[in-house]
Amino acid sequence: MSESPDIPIVRPQTEIEKQLVLPLDPTAFHPSARELEFLKHAISQDEHEIKNRAEEVQKDEKHPYPCLRGFHHVALMMSANKTYPLVLEKGRADPEALFLDVGCCMGTDVRKLLHDGFPGAQVLACDLLPDFIALGHKLYRDKDICPVHFFAADMYEIPLVAPIEPPIPSNVPLGEIKKMSDLLGRLSFVYGGALFHLWDESTQHALALRFALLLRVDKPAIIFGRHQALPEPGYIDDGIKRVRYGHSPESWIRMWKTVFKTIYGPDFALERVRVNTEMISGPPKLLPSPVPLHYMMYWSVEVSA
To answer: Which superkingdom is the protein from (predicted)?
Structure first.
C-alpha cells in the first residue's frame, strides 16, 4: 500500500522485547498531593488500601507498558492540561456536549473529570484493550455505579476513503455505543493521553484524521492531550527498541492544520483551527538508562464555531 497525503498508511505498534521489560517496582508509587486527595475520595481514605489496590491491578495487567510500571494508571494527567478548565466550563454549560477519552486505560482521568463536575451522562471512554476497563472497575469498585459509558474499540477501524469528507453523525444511543464510527461528528471534546507517541509519523497522522472526524463542528470543539515529543521532529530513543515518532511543537501544529485542511478545506483550517502546545522536559523516570532527556508535550486543538 502506498502512502498518500489524504490517506496515510497505518502501521501497528512494535512489541516490546520480553528481555527489555523491567520488573515492577512498588517504590515507584509516589502520588502527588492532588492525586492522593482524589484517590482518597475515589478509592479509600486509607493510604495503604490505595497503594494495595494500585499494585494489585498493576500486577494483573498483562501488557508491559512502561507507564503502568510508573503507576500512571492512578495518575492525573488530563487535568494538568491548560485547556482543562475550559473543557469543564463548556461541558457543564452545554447538556449536548459529549466527551470521549480515547485510550482511557483504567479510567482515572475520566473519573476525575466527573469529580470536577462534568456531567457523567455526557462522558464516554474507550480503550483498545478491554482488560484495562475491567481493571479500572476492579480498582475503583464502581462497575454498577459509574455513569461513564466504557467500551473497547480500535480508532483505526474508522474507515478512511479518499476524498475524506465531513461525517454524517449516527443516532446510536450513547449507552449502546460499541464502535468508534458510532461517534463520528458527535463529540465536543476528545482527549488522547500518552497515545500518539506509540506510533510512527504516518500512523499518528492517520489517528489525527480520525480524531478530527469525531468532532461536531457546528459548535466550538476541542481535541487535547499529552505525549512524548522532541524539540526537533524525529524518532524517539526510548531504550526498549520501539519504533516511535516524536513531533516537535512546530511539526505537531502543521500536522493538525493539514488534517483539517484535508477534511474541511484550507479556509476552515486557517480561520477556525488553533493549535496550542507546551513542552515540559525532565529526566526519564520509567525507562532503562541511558536514554536522552525526556520531553512531554501538552497540547490542544481548538475549533471555533
So the answer is: Eukaryota
Under a CB-based contact definition with an 8 Å cutoff, are residues 213 and 183 in contact? no
Residue 288's pLDDT is: 53
Radius of gyration of the chain (CA): 19
Query: For position 3, what pLDDT does the model report?
Result: 46
**Structural contact between residues 210 and 155, judged by C-beta atoms closer than 8 angstroms:** yes
Q: How many CB atoms lie within 10 A of CB 271?
A: 9
Q: Determine if the pTM surpasses 0.85.
A: yes
Count CA atoms within 13 Å of residue 257 on its CB side. Answer: 13
Nearest to 99, CA basis, from 214, 226, 187:
187
**CA gap 97, 117 in Å, rounded:** 13
CA 298 – CA 225 distance, rounded (Å): 6
Cα distance between residue 63 and residue 193, in whole Å: 17
Q: What is the dihedral of CA 156, 276, 248, 34, to 10 degrees?
A: -80
Contacts of 40 (CB under 8 A, 6+ apart): 47, 50
CA atoms of 179 and 154, how far apart (whole Å): 8
**Distance spanning both ends of the chain, measured CA to CA:** 36
Distance of CA 202 to the CA centre of its chain: 18
Distance CA 265, CA 267 (A): 6
- State whether residue 190 is helix, strand or coil: strand
Specify the amino acid at residue 286. L
- Cis omega before residue 163 (within 30°)? yes
Which regions in the chain score pLDDT beneath 70? 1-5, 283-293
Instruction: For residue 50, give the 3-state DSSP assignment.
Output: helix
